[in-house]
Amino acid sequence: MDSMQAEKECKEESKQDYLKEKEIFWEIYRENRKEEEEARLKSRILWLKAGDKNTSFFHNSMKIRRARN
What we know:
Strand content: under 5%
């Protein structure tokens, strides 16, 4: 009977660990998404400042785009 009680407690702890791990994962995921969004917005700001004038920023952006495509 003691072994059954110990097994039950172990399963409950395991479930709590799983839930805590899941919560931490989603917290990290949300932080990552926020950082990516900030980076995206900053890149848009740079693009708006530099525009598509004949700048090195524009040419580098086009090189990267062509390489990706």
